[in-house]
Write a structure and sequence with these properties.
The chain has three helices and 18 strands. It is an alpha+beta fold. It has an eight-stranded antiparallel barrel with strand order 1-3-4-5-6-7-8-9.
Length: 252
């Protein structure tokens, strides 16, 4: 026999069941919203501003990561892409895992994301017993690395040794210029003809290396700085300073 009491408790049971389901559903929706928000804020183009390895700083020049909202990523230095793959964010542990398709295998596991805003981010993990921290800032376009800036045609302007002008020794006819090609070919146009080789700028230090095809000319290396349209090569041990000016066309 159905009593008022049984009807009452039945209604109460149904009420709690509906409330519990609604709460569970809202928790799931909130979790999905938080995950989506976290993923969206991490996605974007990020430039490395500092890398700390133990007590040392080893910051690469022009290093960046592009994290796509669809879970793909690309990484590179300057205008060069040197890796790609997929990325996954674990919101519970605040971890990001990168899986490389090209580039080097990464055996060190995910990074902990210690802080993340719309414009900055810090990753940290242990590599070979040392704490590694990577600091990022969000950017809108790929950064230029020093090799990107150095690429081009450069007119030989002057040479100094120990503060004394020795331009005539290095450019007696005033017609010398160098061509730093995008494919890293090096061509030095001198009064005696072309000197050919390959050039490279270190990823961590502003140093240009030149390896000549002619075995009679030895390996060359210089500290390099570029300001506006002026490039300066310095070799402190010899007190040598070579200065070049950018050109937008071949002379003559």
């Amino acid at each position: 026999m159905v009593t008022l009491r049984s009807i009452f408790f039945g209604v109460v049971a149904v009420f709690f069941l509906i409330a519990n389901c609604s709460t569970s559903s809202s928790f799931k929706q909130e979790e999905q919203r938080v995950n989506a928000t976290a993923t969206y804020s991490i996605a974007g183009l990020w430039e490395v501003t500092k890398v700390e390895v133990g007590e040392e700083q080893m910051t690469p020049r022009g290093k960046w990561n592009r994290l796509q909202p669809n879970g793909r990523f690309e990484t590179g230095n300057g205008w060069l892409i040197n890796g790609d793959g997929t990325w996954r964010y674990n919101s519970e542990d605040s971890e990001i895992t990168l899986t490389n398709y090209t580039g080097f295998y990464d055996p060190f596991g995910p990074f902990d994301i210690l802080s993340s805003t719309d414009s900055t981010m810090v990753w940290k993990r242990i590599e070979e017993g040392q704490e590694v921290s990577v600091f990022y800032r969000k950017i809108k376009a790929l950064p230029k690395a020093l090799p990107d800036i150095a690429t081009g045609i450069w007119d030989f302007e002057s040479a100094q040794r120990m503060g004394k002008d020795v331009t005539e020794e290095y450019d007696p006819t005033g017609t010398r210029f160098v061509f730093l090609r995008w494919d890293r070919k090096y061509i030095d146009f001198t009064e005696k003809g072309r000197i050919n080789g390959v050039w490279n700028i270190d990823a961590h230090r502003p140093v240009i290396d030149i390896l000549y095809y002619d075995n009679e000319k030895e390996f060359d290396y210089w500290d390099i700085t570029i300001e506006e349209d002026r490039m300066i090569w310095t070799r402190e041990g010899y007190g040598l300073v070579l200065t070049f000016t950018r050109m937008d066309r071949f002379p003559g």
